[in-house]
Amino acid sequence: MNYVALIVAGLLAAMIGGSALATLTRRQSIVDLAREVGFPTEHLWVLGTVKLAAAAGLCLGLLWWPLGVAAAVGLIAYFTAAVDMHIRTRQRDVAAPIVFLVLATVVSILLVSVNT
């Protein structure tokens, strides 16, 4: 595997894993943000679980690249929806979901390009 793909996928997995833990433990900043964008806070466990599964998929995807691509594509869909929610609700702090969206896109491209 390409070292760049390994580093970027590992970085994204760590970042998503941390975000998953913050979401699952209902960190106050996450709860406040969910309220601001109109997401029901009683369903934060779903978002946390999706993020945790994506982080695991990215890690396992380092061993079997199609799983990593699937996890990255899932994150692209997740963060596209997140960016949309931020924009529709005029929530100003849209940088984080955009960074995650860009990283997930880069990981998917890298994993496919170095393995095909």
| Overall residue-averaged pLDDT value | 93
Q: Helix amount, in percent?
A: over 70%
In this structure, how is the largest beta sheet organized?
none
Strand content: under 5%
Total strands:
0
**Overall tally of structural domains:** 1
Task: State the secondary-structure class.
Answer: mainly alpha
> If helices are DSSP runs of H or I spanning 4 or more residues, what is the number of helices?
5
Poorly predicted sequence stretches spanning 5 or more consecutive residues? none
Which geometry do the CA atoms define? Answer: elongated
| Helix and strand run | HHHHH
Rg, alpha carbons: 14 Å
N-to-C span: 11 Å
In short:
It contains five helices and no strands. By secondary structure, the protein is mostly helical.
Tell me what the structure shows.
- The protein is mostly helical.
- It has one domain (3-115).
- It has helices at residues 3-24, 28-37, 44-61, 65-88, 95-115.
- Helix 1 runs antiparallel to helix 5 (95-115), helix 3 runs antiparallel to helix 4 (65-88) and helix 4 (65-88) packs antiparallel against helix 5 (95-115).
- The longest helix is centred in the middle third of the chain and has 24 residues, at 65-88.
- It comes from Nocardia lasii.
- It is found in: Membrane.
Features:
single chain, mainly alpha, 5 helices, 0% strand, 116 residues, elongated
